[in-house]
Design a protein that fits this description.
The chain has 382 residues and is α/β, with parallel strands linked by helices. Helices cover 38% and strands 16% of the residues. An 8-stranded parallel beta sheet has the order 2-3-4-5-6-7-8-9. A 4-stranded antiparallel beta sheet has the order 1-10-11-12, with no helix packed on it. Helix 6 packs parallel to helix 8. The chain is globular and about 70 Å long. The two termini are 21 Å apart. The structure holds N-(iminomethyl)-L-glutamic acid and fe (iii) ion (FE).
Length: 382
């Protein structure tokens, strides 16, 4: 735990350190908090996204989209899934992330999510992983919704053993407000807190739903409505912005092969999110790491992208990547800032100030990472 914060002179007068780490001229920050990821999956989708980036049709015969990852995940052994999670957590840690939210969501059927949650629960890693059951991720097609939602609800009890949060995708690509509300209401009775994928590919009143039911977070928000911007101002639901999704899905703009994935209104997103913050929303940033819309593991990348695409100040971005993410995960009393009594999750950066971390983009600027006071990623000089 952090026992004191102050100048070196003050600290040296009152404490004798068991060991001293010289960080002269370097930035010290709280460990980064990544409150939205799809950490567990099989397969990758570079052929699909490579074609999208080049403006070519997706090669015939290869499955694509979330369904492709569902199939690849089903075909991946538990051992390999676990190895994939560990590998990704290693990269995240090396880039300064010390707490991460991880969703299931790539089961072919809701019952398959339990295996994914169990794997996540069994992974041992220095990065703290907070688990979320995401059964209602992608629409099963117009005629299958009723049955699918029933199936998602049926798995809630089994999922609760492994997951603290239940996520629902309230979006044209996912489920309606009514369907999400049914799932969320049942989840609440079992003690889940709620997170919502909201309004990613079209306005669907997902943010309004999240705020109305007091969800911990409403994430994505590319198609946020004017009403939701107002509602966030009076709400404790955290608006989680996912800048690497906006960036990566530039590839989707004007793609006739992707009629289902409406391109987000990118040129206006900066304006929308500036307005969201100016009105008083509590907002955070996450990577949304997944093999499709955001194959990005580093919060530094998300922070840099947010600055350029969303017109946020560097100082805002630091809050959004530490304490606000911690708050959205119900842990603001323990992590997310360097305060006496909090967990010593600390990053030493190889730059002299916080602005450079965001300004100097494209390289990993982390030197040393501490989790609960222990060095878990050694810097070059240690
Ligand atoms: O961006 N609606 C949710 N969609 C995911 C995409 C995951 C993928 O492309 O595999 C998201 O959060
Ligand atoms: Fe997501």
């Amino acid at each position: 735990l952090i026992v004191s914060v102050g100048s070196s002179a003050e600290l040296e007068e009152n404490y004798i350190g068991r060991c001293t780490i010289d960080a002269t001229g370097k930035l010290i920050s709280p460990g980064l908090v990544d409150p939205h990821t799809h950490l567990i999956h099989g397969g990758t989708r570079e052929s699909e996204w490579g074609a999208l980036a080049a403006g070519r049709p997706i090669p015939g015969g290869i499955p694509h989209g979330i369904v492709a990852t569902q199939m690849a995940t089903q075909a991946t052994s538990t051992k390999e899934l676990s190895a994939g999670v560990t590998k990704r957590l290693n990269v995240m840690l090396a880039h300064g992330t010390t707490t991460v939210e991880a969703k299931s969501g790539y089961g072919v059927a809701p019952a398959d999510e339990i295996r994914l949650l169990r794997v996540l629960a069994n992974v041992e890693h220095d990065v703290e992983v907070i688990r979320t059951y995401l059964g209602a991720h992608v629409s099963p097609g117009p005629s299958g919704h009723m049955q699918f939602v029933d199936d998602v609800i049926k798995q809630l009890e089994a999922a609760r053993e492994f997951a603290e949060y239940c996520d629902v995708c309230c979006d044209p690509s996912g489920f309606t407000v009514q369907e999400c509300e049914r799932i969320a209401a049942k989840a609440r009775t079992l003690g889940f807190d709620i997170r919502v994928h909201a309004d990613q590919t079209g306005s669907f009143a997902g943010a309004e739903l999240a705020i109305r039911i007091g969800a911990a977070s409403a994430d994505h928000l590319e198609y946020i409505s004017d009403e939701a911007i107002e509602l966030f101002a009076e709400s404790n639901t955290v608006a989680i912005l996912l800048p690497t999704v906006s960036y990566h899905s530039f590839s989707l703009v004007r793609q006739p092969t992707n009629a289902n994935w409406l391109p987000a209104p990118h040129p206006w997103l900066g304006q929308r999110f500036r307005e969201l913050l100016d009105r008083g929303a509590l907002a955070a940033i996450a990577t949304d790491y997944n093999p499709g819309s955001s194959p990005a593991l580093s919060m530094q990348t998300a922070m840099e992208t947010a600055a350029r695409m969303y017109r946020l100040s560097y100082a805002e971005i630091w809050h959004m990547s530490t304490i606000n993410g911690a708050y959205s995960l119900g842990r603001a009393d323990r992590i997310g800032s360097l305060e006496v009594g909090k967990q010593a999750d600390i990053v030493v950066w190889d730059v002299p100030n916080h602005e450079l971390v965001i300004n100097q983009f494209g390289t990993n600027l982390v030197e040393t990472v501490f989790k609960k006071g222990k060095i878990v990623h050694p810097g070059a000089n240690l």
